[in-house]
Amino acid sequence: MKSKQYATCKICSQEMKPGQGCRASTIRCDGKVYGRIKAGDELDFDPDMDEGGICHDCFVGFGQYHHFSCDSEICPICHKQLIGCDCDSEYGEAE
User: In total, how many domains does the chain have?
Assistant: First the structure.
């Protein structure tokens, strides 16, 4: 039986398996560093996520960082959807 294959995050190089969050915790913009918003946080796309829940797009668990290009990640600068906002930001290094 073939095991399921998952996409690989371009930031942390991990497979986006359910419950496995991204290891990059910051975003940089205009020389400033901002902490990323975690899945289930009050500012997250899904602030009502239960502790056992996972993101519908990148499969991270509650309290973890979304993976690169997740449509649920919110920009910590403008608080809009990160993949569509106008902030000239880039992810920090994966830890």
Answer: 1
